[in-house]
Structures are given as structure tokens and as C-alpha cells.
Amino acid sequence: MPVLVASDLDRTLIYSAAALALTMPDARAPRLLCVEVHESRPLSYMTETAAGLLTELGDEALFVPTTTRTRKQYQRINLPGPAPKYAICANGGHLLVDGVSDPDWHVRVAARLAEECAPLDEVREHLLDTADPLWVRKHRMAEDLFAYLVVERELLPEDWVKELAVWAENRGWTVSLQGRKIYAVPKPLTKSSAMREIARRTGAELTLAAGDSLLDADLLLAADRGWRPGHGELAEAGWNAPAITALPERGVLAGERILREFLHGVRGA
């Protein structure tokens, strides 16, 4: 039976220049590989060592990129190693099979959201009414499933995020602050449900996972073993669980460590 490895991407395996967190002298910094280009500019990186580890992992396990990104945003990423058979996009709203969204899965997700949550339009209207243009740079809808804001963090009132979280909770939604983005996501829209579906289809009996944000918590809890880096929402909250390992590494070196842990887990199985 294959081992299924479901990993978040941004700030878990791949990193923007601002998130690299390289603290050593420049001459000792690791060599980096660009894995995403957007509008002709390099955008995301991993270390060359991590790229080699990911290639090994793709050869030895069922590696499933698992992201809150839309399909279009995910498809900008060029990960090393074998092309993944499966990928999870839009926080579980789309399950890609050989790069194509499974329509039956998406219909099931949409039906559950309609039944259990306040509509997206209501959430979008609330964001437009309450977010201050002084610190909001962009309003975005993602795949007609959830919404997010791009903000200036230094100007963002902390109480506003807390108030939004309470408002969203009462309507079946959750809020996550990740870097310069504030996500409002329906509670049933989860990475874990898509991971379980892939495990069912493939017969995987062991699942491993990694992630750094509140939106990754359900994925980590659903896996047999999970890892989180020393940065991100989960680290800041001191979040942990019995099968979760909190790693000390921060930034791009955390991505390298996570891939080593995945390989150890796969080979130990």
C-alpha cells in the first residue's frame, strides 16, 4: 500500500523571498531553487537540498501538494520530482487528478457548503463593509468558494481580525491570518476531507502531513503523523497534538527538515 504524504506548500515547502528567514552569513546561505515565476518575476523558492529530497519523496511515496491556492495559482508552481498524480487546491474545494479537477468531488463540496454555511456573498459584503481601505490592498474571491484580503500588516488593527473571527464563527466560517492575507473560509471546506478521499481511492494506509497555518490544523489532525515548522499561525499559538511534531526550524530550512522527516516516515513504514 502506498504511503500518502499531503503537504501544504506556501511557508511549509516553498517560500517567498520575504519568508526565507536566512540568518546565517551570506557566504554560508544555502543554494536556492526558484519553483515559481509570476509575471516574469521569481516568486517562490526551496533549497536545492530540499529539491533533491522532494524528488526522492516523489519516487517513494504518493506525494500530494495540498494548498489553499486556487488552481490557477497552484499551476504556476513547478515542483521538482515526478508530476503528482493528485493535488488538493482551494483548501479542498478542488481535487485534481492528473492536473484536472474531479467534477464529482467539487459538486459534493459545493452541496455541503450550501447546506451548512452562510453564503459567500454575505461574507464578501461584510468584508467590503467593515475592512478599512487604509490597510486593505486587495479584495479577492477564490474559486467562488471563499474570500481573502491582502492587507498592510503594520496598519491592521488586531481587534478587527478577532471581531471578524467571532462574526464568521456564528455563520459556519473560519478566519485565518497568514502573512499579508486574511482568509475567510467555510468550515466544511477542508484539506483533510480531500486527503481522506485520496487515501480511499489509492488504498493508502499511512498518511503523513505538514503545514504551518490554522487552515492546516485539520489536515495535521487527520494524518497518522504530522509536522509543523517553527513559524506560522500554529507555532505562534503554541498549537500541538499527540501525533504532531513541532519543529524548531524556521523559514526555508524548515521546508528542508520537513522533507527529511517525510522520507524517514516513508522508509520507516
From TrEMBL:
Entry annotated with the keyword Transcription regulation: no
Q: Which UniProt keyword terms apply here? A: Hydrolase
**Keyword Hydrolase set for record:** yes
Domain of life where this protein originates? Bacteria
What is the designated name of this protein? HAD superfamily hydrolase
Q: Name one GO molecular function term.
A: hydrolase activity
